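Re: that chain you flagged

S.,

Sorry for the slow reply, it's been a week of failed gels. I finally had a moment to sit down with the sequence you sent. For the record, here it is as I used it:
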Amino acid sequence: MVRVRFAPSPTGHLHLGAARTALFNWLFSRHHEGKFILRIEDTDAARSSEEMSRGIMEGLKWLGLEWDEGPSFQSKRIEIYKNVAERLVQEGLEGKTHYQDLIHGPISVENKHIEDFVRIKDFTAENIEKALRLRAGKEGVKASLFIHALRMLVLGKPVSPGIFEVLELVGKEKTIKRIEKFENLFF
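Prediction finished late last night. Pasting the structure tokens below so you have them in one place:
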């Protein structure tokens, strides 16, 4: 079943671009007899407000875009992401990890060396995202859990600009050092 989501940030009113995205997602879900999910990205506590969340939901209803699931609020899920981040680090300390690389095919690596796990030749946002989504699929976990856990591990924040672009800017070495620093602090 097709599941699409609309994830506005309640830092302002529903604008035309966001309404367009919601409309296309809603139409796509209806065309494929799927689900249209509303997720409110309210992790920017300084700028988000309940009033804006309500306004966004009222705007969607006014447009006739009823959601099938939600609304879910990301601020209520931060503990889940922290727990997944801790589990990923903890499980990565022993044994081997097996995953399917887009370029090299099946790969098995010793987990004791984080550098071996991060086998991305060209550390670009696109390649980081592909590798992370492949790993999530292999683990049978939603990619969003890995993404939010990685954000917490590397940036120490539950919200940021596009995480893959940020990691590309941070660079491979610093990203790995920050993950290792987390390991040393908590394990």
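What I noticed first: The CA atoms of residues 7 and 39 lie 5 Å apart.

Talk soon,
D.
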